[in-house]
Amino acid sequence: MIFKNRLVMIITGITDIFLGVCIMVLPRILPILITGYRDQVFLSESMLVSLAFPFLILLVGVGILLKKDWARVMGFFLALFAMISAVSDFFLIKPSQEIIHTTAQIHFIFSVILPALSIVYFSAHSLVLFFITKAETPLWGGPREQEDQTKRILEQAEYYCANCTKSVSPEAEICPECGAVLKGLHCPGCGYEDAVSRFTDGRCPRCGAEVKSD
What we know:
Elements: E1 2-3, H1 6-33, H2 45-65, H3 69-90, H4 104-132, E2 133-134, H5 142-156, E3 159-160, E4 167-168, E5 184-186, E6 193-195
Antiparallel strand pairs: 1-2, 3-4, 5-6
């Protein structure tokens, strides 16, 4: 992954790691801080499932700092998943099991404020990944694009004769200035050396021996 703005991406990666760790740790602390808040049973199936989302955030943050292409793809998936989850929280009539015994203010924070902040953050997260990063190897058409780029470089390159250093055409077999052979073959039989076009059907024009190009 290529960064167009290194500082912004470092801040994004660190923020993801911090956010992921917080979402893992805070639910374990909230029962102490909020009256009526109930966390899942330790290492229960529901707790392990709840750890998947913050772990994904943390993983994306690490991938961004390591400049991995998979972090870019996973970041878009993470943002989509987070925003769908946040929007669904707005329309839940019954509060989640963790906050069902807490006050109305706590319901409002967890059902409205936090989902709204989640939508804002992950919308910004997607925009940052889209505009400030670029995949090093495109998912589609990567090899073809690299071939086209190599072809363009070769077409724009300048060629020079190794003997007289004069500029020559890339198609030239013999230097027009000094007559040096630029694209030639050497016959192993008689030692004759000349331009490739003189070796008709891959045979030496002097002795008729078969000559293979390297």
